[in-house]
Fold this sequence. Notes:
Layout: E1 2-3, H1 13-17, E2 22-24, E3 31-33, H2 43-52, E4 58-59
Antiparallel strand pairs: 1-4, 2-3
Amino acid sequence: MRVDPERCCASGMCVLTAPGVFDQSEEDGSVRLLRAVPRAEEEQAVRDAVRLCPTGAIGFAGSPTAPRRG
Length: 70
C-alpha cells in the first residue's frame, strides 16, 4: 500500500472502509497507513477504499499515482 498524506482531503472514507489498514492523523485528519500489507480478509475492503478515495491519496505500492481530481 501507499499513501500520500499531502494529497489527502481527510474525507475519512478509507478509515470507514478499511479501519484495520488506514487511520487518520489527529492533527489534520490526513490518511495514515497502519499496515502496508493488508490481511487476506481485508483485501476487498482495501480495494474499495482505494476506489472511494476522492483524491487518489491511497493506492497499491508500485501503481502509478492517480491523477488529481477536481
